[in-house]
Amino acid sequence: METPVVRFVKEYNNSRKTRFHMPGHKGHVFFGCEPYDITEIPGADVLHHGNGILAESQKNASALFGSGATHYSTEGSSHCIKAMLAILKMERGKEDGQDKPFLLAARNVHRSMVDACALLDLGIRFVMPERQESLCSAVISREQLEEAVAGCEKKPLGVYVTSPDYLGQMSDLASLSAVCKKHGLPLLVDNAHGAYLHFLKTPLHPLDLGAAMCCDSAHKTLPALTGAAYLHIHREYAGRFEPYAAQALAIFGSTSPSYLLLQSLDLCNRYLSGEYPDRLEGLVVKVEAVKEELVSQGICVKPSEPLKIVLDTAQNGYRGEEIAEEMRSFAIECEYADWQNVVLMAAPENTETDWERLSQWSAETKLVKEKKEAFPHKPFPAVKAEQVMGIREAAFSRHEVLPVYDAVGRVCAAETVSCPPAVPIAVCGELITREMAELFLQYGIEEVSVCIF
Fold first, then answer.
1. Which of 76, 172, 367, 410 is most buried (CB neighbours < 10 A)?
2. Burial class, 162, CB count within 10 angstroms (exposed 0-12 / middle 13-18 / buried 19+)
3. C-alpha distances in angstroms, 113 versus 38, 92, 121?
4. 3-class SS at 354?
5. Vertex 377, ends 375 and 381: CA angle to 5°?
């Protein structure tokens, strides 16, 4: 597959032109990448209004993912999430006298979704799962979504879910999509952790399962630089949503996109169109074998998406943070750890040395050699939040920062989060409860911002 962005930048660098344009390094090497770090000079196209090399590259990506349209972002899925919600608001317009549109959403949204609602003055009605084991996961069923839609007195803008989530849990997107189509609602998916899913033997990407739009963080699971992301629009929805995509992305995006990241996305197209599906299939088999081996050694492993290994350390009597520190002594750095889990993310670029280190760790870990009683089962407290102010009103109010227990009974002004996973415990405008305060402390958050009246 052609890589027009990479080709253009290489040709420009080889031309040895005098650079009386940005950036200020002028192509001189300080860090190493400067010769290929350019700006939107003639021929380089314009990211959100492209008709040249960027448009060509994005069409290549669209063909690979089978989308109706694919747009690049150099500001991560956070940028794409804001754009998706803006597209919905623009396309709906103002109707039925509904001054403040709202979305139905699973509770484990990323903070960027709440930020988007604050900026766009949207509301959220959370659909609570029957059972929630962690802040990171909130998988809702077809029946729960049906019930939530039936309970709406006015039509929502759409339905929003995160799948896969930080712990590798995946929603039944095909079922949720069927409910959405039945009621004429677009399904939006935060697929930041699942860009690779389209390239599985049996594709599991949101677009393959009926989502209207989704965001993918290319850098999370594909060989792209950090911040590289996609906004995908399904073929069936392209006529409705594509006319608004460029404006929505431009509203929330920088006018100085990184051409290093754009080249990374461009080069990724060639990789995806070539050996990647075969390498991915081999990796899926490898990861499944590793999970089985860990379980055979007595290490608790949670079911998860194909490329995540999620260790339930609490079942072996240890906090995840302690096991993450133990792994560092074996030269292993995990993706995420909390009081009950350790999350490892794999890619075809992991080497045999990487897998050997994991094997060495599993043979020596205290999870096996010094196994303790499992932590007493403590049901995850249901966050029964009362929204007493609009998200936008609370986010832009005067506020103060208080210790979490002193904040009980006050209105949350900012979705204070630990990152990762950047999932809000309390959303702007919600009344902070004692249960929320306990969760804040459980996830290492000692202070929270509250509104001043």
1. 367
2. buried
3. 31, 18, 12
4. helix
5. 120
Question: 245 and 230, same structural domain?
Answer: yes
Is the sign of the CA dihedral 341, 342, 347, 348 positive or negative?
Answer: negative
In angstroms, what CA-CA distances link 362 with 330, 333, 353, 406? Answer: 10, 14, 14, 43
Q: 339 and 251, same structural domain? A: no
> What type of residue sits at position 13?
N
Whether residue 134 is found in the same domain as residue 61: yes
What pTM does this model have?
A: 0.95
Residue 129: predicted pLDDT: 87
Q: Are residues 269 and 281 in the same domain?
A: no
CATH number of the domain bearing residue 440: 3.90.105.10
Peptide bond into 23 cis (omega under 30): yes
- Span 51-79, mean pLDDT? 98
Task: Give the phi and the psi of residue 8 in degrees, each rounded to 5.
Answer: -60, -45
Confidence of residue 365 (pLDDT cuts 50, 70, 90): very high
Contact, 185 vs 160, CB < 8 A?
no
pLDDT at residue 29, as a whole number: 96
* Enclosing domain of residue 66: 4-273
pLDDT digits (tens, 9 = 90+) for 419-443: 788 899 999 999 999 999 998 998 8
Q: Give the integer Cα–Cα distance in Å for 330 and 361.
A: 6
Residue 140 lies in a domain: yes
Residues 255 and 282 in one domain: no
**Cα distance between residue 256 and residue 150, in whole Å:** 44
**In the chain, what is the straight-line distance between the N-terminal and C-terminal CA atoms, in Å?**
58
Same structural domain, 17 and 45: yes
Contact partners, residue 438, CB within 8 Å, separation at least 6: 381
Instruction: Provide the number of structural domains found in the chain.
Output: 3
> Looking at residue 342, which CATH number applies to its domain?
3.90.1150.10
